[in-house]
Amino acid sequence: MPRIKTEELPDGTADPIKAHLRSYGSVECYLTSTQDYLPAAFWAQNQQSIQGQDVTRAAHAALMQQLQQQAPAAVSGAALMALIEFTRMLPFGVDGLDAILMGGMRETTITELAGESCSGKTQLCLLAAVTTAHRGERVVYFDTTNAFSAGRARQLCMANYNDTACLGNIMVVACHSIHALLASLDELAAQASSSDPGARPSMIIVDSISALLSPVIGSTQHHQGHVLVAETGRLLRHIADSLKLAVLVTNHVVGSSYGGYGSRAAPGRDSTATTGQQGGAATGAARLGPGDVNYNFKPALGEQWRGLPHTRLQLSRTPAADSVCATLLASSIKDLGHQAWFSIGETIQDAERPG
């Protein structure tokens, strides 16, 4: 919990309000103290002076005001619909993928790409960065695994726009620890809030968020790791909302391997070959067709991270095809399960579903 710090008044004396708050040691201790939620009973029992009552009242009011500024405001359904309709979209640059997202990534939101290794997560991040930069907008790319390839970004620029000047709008920041990422995000938020709105980035990309958070969570689910997961999600949401930009993050997946125990066919496909008569999972060898995708995988980082992204796409590369399937697993504006297929070559383009 945050600590309460004391400050001096201009005349050099201690601020009585902050001195009173300091006596609790932390915000958590203050909020769990009954004397400030039941002040009348406390004062009557202890016969405090009028001055003491004023200090306690002022301290309570000051802290409640700060907490109310941090608490999310209630918003009506009509206001949310109006916000969605007027929110700007930042497309990936793949028509089918942008279609299932109703235009692309929405400003003020977090979009997550989850998938196995070599499923195309970094490729889509590079394409999104190039597409946004080509429109003359700035992109901040946090590279946590040294996966950013300037050569590949240049290739995408030439294949899609026959121009490489837009690469100047992409700023790459290498972050190899979660603490370095949080410090960089804090610095970015401070600089952007004080700069001209036209100079602010339109997109932040973190590739990959799980590479930084998985080690601090560990197999023992350490408490400090969960705190860092929550703080990272909170900070990304705050930056997206306050600076009116889109945040794109990548995450790995956990679960059974492709075609193994419990594999299921994609929506709309005949899954009788992979499930029993009661709908249970099969225990045989791989039975998925070339157009089927394993949905037993789930995004990593646990339940605490699960609800932080506003939109989640799971990427799956089928072993019998060169194309990648993107499935909409989470969205606040569209029903789930929609799919888009794309191929990765010199450029990234729509592809037919394998037969």
TrEMBL record:
PANTHER family: DNA REPAIR PROTEIN RAD51 HOMOLOG 4. This is RecA family profile 1 domain-containing protein. Residues 86-253 form the RecA family profile domain. Its main location: nucleus. PROSITE patterns: RECA_2 (PS50162). It is found in: Nucleus. CDD domains: Rad51D. Gene3D superfamilies: P-loop containing nucleotide triphosphate hydrolases (3.40.50.300). Keywords: ATP-binding, DNA damage, DNA recombination, DNA repair, DNA-binding, Nucleotide-binding, Nucleus. Pfam families: Rad51. Belongs to the RecA family. RAD51 subfamily. Residues 260-286 are annotated as: Disordered. It comes from Tetradesmus obliquus. It comes from the Eukaryota.
